[in-house]
Design goal:
The complex is a heterodimer. Chain A is an all-alpha fold. Chain A has eight helices and no strands. Helices cover 77% and strands 2% of the residues of chain B. Classes of the chains: A mainly alpha, B mainly alpha.
């Protein structure tokens, strides 16, 4: 059951992407494509890419080399779209608050630059574990590189929002949570694969990746289905106080 | 393999941090009721005295160098305590303002938006000043301009007052102690 080409393996490869097609339709019908264009593009591309790769994988006429080349190209495009989706989240979180705009942009640019540097260093030190099929090792290293940057950016997004107590709305929060879980888990598994470890357990790692992706798609689905209120709201009664003292203070400040 | 272990540990820590933040976000609903009790009234005049460069110049002229550095460090620590409290107040005000944003009254919603924006600016400024205070603690002879924080805090008082008056004209919000 926990092997390649088992029923579970077929289900986990296809089901999340069938759900993504439904999610894309839901986003489009609700007019949310204007709010999350990169996320929608990512959702559609990911579904098409995975259906294509699945077809190539089970087709006996497609060579392994061709499959890995297609995967390689798909990785680059989906990686760029995911970065676009993260940028979109950051924009949606910061847009209402001009006070944080410049600082936020500087911090995320700086964080991105540091993460790119770290990811490139990690890639440079990663071994080519299978010299006869170097394209496979390179694909693993590319995955590791993309997910190091993505994981760092999503973590930064959460930390930034938590530090300033910025309120997420449900959809933004759901997308960020799904991308966060996806990035962390994929970074760990691709790092293990890129290192050449657990060669006999690759099927398990693949299944773990696919199962995590399935969970993330369900999270996105859930947050797009529920009403889009703020993720946190609280009715706060304001305390009693002395208006006269405050007025005096404000008048004094105005006269300075 | 070492690199893979490092990355796996980093991934686990990052995931734990994301889950913790996500859970704390949802728990804000239950903690929201006691927000006003978390605001600390601050004595703006006392803070203004602490950050007054003229006071520092006077102390520098009157005290021996070693004594001046010790006094300056004490003043900087007191300043840090004020700035930290102002930053905490800003956080509480962000949450109060965000809660008021959903108000059906456009004037209240606009006042809430202004309050949140000012509170975020104060939070940003207190963070930057906090860094500068700790740098100044290492080099007590260097100058330190925290005036921006006072100005922002006073501006924030105005925003909080406006929102308080719009939400409840009889019970406005106070952020600092008047002289």
């Amino acid at each position: 059951m926990l092997q390649a080409h088992s029923f579970l393996w077929h289900y986990l490869w296809l089901a999340p992407h069938v759900l993504q097609v439904a999610l894309a339709i839901l986003i489009w019908r609700r007019g949310l494509h204007k709010l999350f264009p990169f996320f929608l593009a990512y959702t559609i591309f990911e579904a098409i890419e995975e259906f294509t790769l699945y077809g190539m994988d089970i087709s006996p006429t497609i060579s392994g080399e061709t499959y890995w080349r297609a995967l390689y190209a798909g990785l680059i495009i989906e990686g760029l779209l995911r970065f676009g989706a993260i940028g979109e989240l950051f924009l949606r979180l910061l847009r209402p608050w001009p006070a944080l705009g410049r600082l936020g942009n500087r911090l995320i640019s700086g964080t991105g630059a540091v993460l790119v540097l770290l990811a490139v260093l990690a890639a440079a030190y990663a071994p080519i574990d299978n010299p006869q099929h170097a394209i496979i090792s390179r694909a693993h290293i590319l995955e590791q590189t993309l997910f190091i940057i993505q994981c760092g950016l999503v973590l930064f997004l959460f930390l930034f929002a938590a530090y300033f107590r910025l309120a997420w709305n449900n959809r933004t929060f759901g997308i960020a949570l799904g991308l966060g879980i996806l990035s962390c888990e994929h970074m760990a598994t691709w790092a293990v694969m890129a290192s050449g470890a657990l060669l006999n357990r690759r099927d398990l790692l693949d299944l773990f990746n696919m199962a995590t992706y399935h969970v993330c798609v369900l999270i996105w689905f859930y947050y797009f289905l529920i009403p889009n209120g703020p993720a946190t709201t609280s009715a706060v009664p304001l305390p009693e106080n002395n208006l006269a003292i405050w007025n005096r203070e404000l008048e004094r400040l105005l006269q300075q | 393999m070492t690199l893979a272990i490092v990355l796996v540990i980093a991934a686990v820590l990052a995931l734990a941090a994301i889950f913790r933040i996500a859970v704390s976000q949802s728990l804000q609903v239950s903690r929201g009721a006691n927000l006003t009790g978390q605001i600390q009234a601050l004595d703006v005049e006392a803070f203004r005295n602490l950050v007054n460069p003229a006071e520092d110049d006077y102390l520098r002229r009157r005290l021996p160098s070693a004594r001046f550095r010790a006094v300056r460090r004490q003043r900087l620590r007191a300043m840090a305590a004020y700035v930290q409290a102002a930053g905490q107040n800003a956080v509480v005000l962000v949450r109060m303002g965000e809660a008021a944003l959903a108000s059906g009254d456009p004037r209240t919603a606009e006042a809430a938006r202004q309050l949140v924006n000012d509170a975020l600016l104060l939070r940003r400024n207190t963070t930057l000043v906090f860094v500068r205070i700790y740098i100044a603690l290492a080099w007590p002879n260097s100058g330190l301009a925290a005036v921006q924080v006072i100005d922002r805090y006073e501006h924030l008082n105005g925003s909080a007052m406006l929102l308080g008056r719009l939400q409840n004209p009889r019970a406005p919000l106070r952020l600092s102690v008047s002289p």
